[in-house]
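Posting this for the archive.
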Amino acid sequence: MECGDLSPLSFWRRGHSGDKSPHSKRAVIAHLHLIKKRHLKRVALPITPALRGRVRLQGAHDRMTGPVGNECLMRIEAPALDFVDTVVNVRYAETDQMGVVYYANYLVWFEVGRVAWCRARGFSYRDMEIEDGHRMMVAEAACRYRAPARFDDDVVIRTAAASASEKVIRFSYEVRDKKTWKLLATGETAHVVTDLNNRPSRLPARYRKYFRLRTG
């Protein structure tokens, strides 16, 4: 996307070089504001392989804003995440009287996704507890519901480690309809690393590589 030079100086040179009165200068600036108001808009662009991994993304799109002054700006709103997908078939017992999945079951699905994420990365969360005496205790949980899931639907639980330190790990989630890929819910959980006595601790060294933490 190319943006023309909309700076007051260039506009002055193109059409108002002979009139340098303060009134005309204010008119030029007012005209520029009007141009921006009419033409400034956000354009949703599909993610391409060339963009993935080089820009920060939000959901399924990034946002480009332009024109602004004499330049185009791409605003990046969220980091690209490396999701692990898990398919769940909605059981009748997971729905409520309204015929949709009961809201609390999404948190159960988040747990299913976390365990699958650990396994996909090459370790077992159960082993972290039994062999290393550490837990990832849930300290915060949030879920935003966008569309309902119903009995016998196949849904995809997408799980990614959003951020990690030796003491706190955050996971992000997407819940999508497998058939239509419609976004049903998004969520996040924050986990504090503790020992088996629920006292704050640090992530054991051998697990740090799975969260891309330095082991030295």
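The longest strand covers residues 183-195. Strands lie at 41-46, 61-68, 71-75, 84-89, 134-145, 154-164, 168-177, 183-195.
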